[in-house]
Write a structure and sequence with these properties.
This protein has 177 residues and is mainly alpha-helical. Helix content is 55%, strand content 7%. It has a 3-stranded parallel beta sheet, with helices on one face.
Length: 177
Amino acid sequence: DVIYIVDSAGYMLPSELKNYVDAIHQRSGMVTLGYHGHNNMGLAVASALELIDAGVEYIDTTLTGIGRAGGNIPTETMIAVLSKKFGPTQYSDNFLLSTMAISRKFREYVLSKGKNFDTRSEDILFGYSGFHSSYEKLLRDYTEEKGLDFYQSIIDVSKIEKGRLSRELLDEIFTNE
């Protein structure tokens, strides 16, 4: 059994995540922990390193960091960083090179399907605000219909609600301004 800490908006700083780990350990002892982080603000690898030092045993990664919004921790980056932190071995060098070769092929395949790997400014703003990208279409449609600035609305909405966005809540938020 593993308890996972999930930063699905790429919102938390490494020190904030460490505070979660410390609180869990204080309440539950040294339970097995994992981390699933999104990289909206480019902090997922740094957060993973902080959490490894705090005793987290499982770190989720994906090839090329592919994932929703700002993506996840890139497997190949994490291998390189761990090798640098703990010292390279012949195994880690070979593993890194093999993973990078697979990653390049995977990237070429994804690009051939018309997808891209760029972090959009929206993804960074989602991370900054703690806005979950699953609500992007709802907010885009709403702001377009009401003539509101989509980007400012991300910040405004996130100050009030980060987890359960609905059209009714948007009406309430923007009617009260």
